[in-house]
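Researcher: Next sequence.
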Amino acid sequence: MSVASNIAEGYGRSTKGEYVLFLGNARGSNSEVETQIVIAKALGFGSIQMIETTEQMCSEVGRMLGAMMKSLRSKSPGPEYLVPPDVVKKDSITHYALSSEIAR
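Model: Next structure:
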């Protein structure tokens, strides 16, 4: 859950730099999950097939996060904002929501 939350938080902050930072946080959280899988395996929790499948999924998520970070860092200079600030509005519970302009 932390991996997905970090990705969403980084994107919600709108700038490429912050997005890359939070993708790094997500990659760190993914590493935590990988460590927990190693511990679960050592303690005999879950089936071998389930553990191996989960290890493969974590590995793939790590590769995707790394590729996404590399892609964002290597993009040609352009607008720093992923979503222009004028199309982001703050809702009543202090989360950021995209305005109807983005939904179109």
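Model: Confidence is low (pLDDT under 50) at residues 91-104. Strands lie at 88-90, 96-98.
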